[in-house]
């Protein structure tokens, strides 16, 4: 995958895994306007690149992301009302990034070491898998800044932990550690920091061994399941499974089954 030079991100791709590192360690990887735009560009490019099988997000310098930069040096200056300026930034930068991120067909993995707060927490929690170190801490910090949620937090939290717990996290804005995040179902695994890379490699290896088309269909149907009725879900399952049977991946899976070997998906 080819991407333009990034000022706020470090990008690396190897063996089908695209690793995206939020790279503003001096600001605990707070997302300025440029980072929102760069993330959107990376996600949109990755979505159309069949060579990208897994997308990994992590932060530089011992933290994942402290949220949106409340005083970004790249903020436009004008005399329009504050509401208009804020809405222009949200609709022009934050929303396009969030839409591009949640539209990714590939499995996404967040690797969280240190803090993940505000928009950074919701970026991590929006991933399909969250792998955390024992030092990880999460916070829906918005209410402490007299702000409401962004980056799809209002959509994500009730789905992940239920409405009552979501309200506790969002209305109190308290920090939770990695162990509590695991208990709540916000993260998949918690390990010592030194073991994070090994755990990530194991997850990537498993995902790379699965059929990419099936992964994309399963991911989309699960994300849409909360809006679907029972019969609608059944119909969608049938359409998706029928679609899978026409793919080269299915032919390879059947051949591997008959030949008693592991499948090799392109």
Describe this structure as you would to a colleague.
This protein is of the alpha/beta class. The chain folds into 2 domains: 9-208, Alpha-Beta Complex (2-enoyl-CoA Hydratase, Chain A, domain 1), CATH 3.90.226; 212-258. It is built from 10 helices and 9 strands. The chain has helices at 33-47, 82-102, 119-125, 153-161, 163-172, 178-184, 196-208, 212-224, 230-245, 248-258, and strands at residues 9-14, 17-22, 54-59, 108-112, 115-117, 129-133, 137-139, 176-177, 189-191. The chain has a 6-stranded mixed sheet, with helices on both faces. A 3-stranded mixed sheet has the order 5-7-8. Strand 3, helix 2 and strand 4 form a beta-alpha-beta unit. Helix 1 (33-47) runs parallel beside helix 2, helix 4 (153-161) crosses helix 5 (163-172) and helix 8 (212-224) packs antiparallel against helix 9. The protein is globular and about 65 Å long. The two termini are 16 Å apart. The mean pLDDT is 95.
């Amino acid at each position: 995958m080819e991407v333009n030079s990034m000022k706020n991100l470090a990008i690396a791709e190897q063996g089908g895994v695209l690793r995206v590192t939020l790279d503003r360690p001096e600001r605990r990887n707070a997302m300025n306007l440029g980072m929102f735009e760069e993330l959107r560009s990376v996600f949109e490019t990755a979505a159309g690149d069949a060579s990208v099988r897994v997308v990994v997000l992590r932060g530089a310098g011992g933290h994942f992301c402290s949220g949106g930069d409340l005083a970004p040096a790249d903020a436009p200056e004008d005399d329009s009302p504050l509401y208009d300026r804020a809405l222009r930034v949200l609709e022009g930068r934050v929303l396009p990034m969030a839409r591009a991120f949640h539209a990714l067909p590939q499995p996404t993995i967040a690797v969280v070491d240190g803090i993940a707060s505000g928009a950074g927490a919701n970026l991590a929690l929006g991933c399909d898998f969250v792998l955390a170190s024992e030092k990880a801490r999460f916070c829906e910090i918005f209410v402490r800044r007299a702000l409401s949620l962004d980056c799809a937090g209002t959509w994500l939290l009730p789905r992940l932990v239920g409405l009552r717990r979501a309200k506790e996290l969002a209305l109190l804005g308290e920090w939770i550690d990695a162990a509590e995040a695991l208990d709540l179902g916000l993260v998949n695994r918690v390990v010592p920091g030194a073991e994070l890379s090994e755990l990530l490699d194991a997850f990537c290896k498993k995902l790379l061994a699965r059929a990419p088309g099936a992964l994309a269909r399963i991911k989309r149907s699960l994300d849409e399941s909360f809006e679907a009725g029972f019969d609608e879900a059944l119909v969608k399952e049938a359409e998706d499974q029928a679609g899978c049977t026409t793919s080269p991946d299915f032919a390879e899976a059947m051949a591997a089954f008959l030949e008693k070997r592991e499948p090799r998906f392109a």
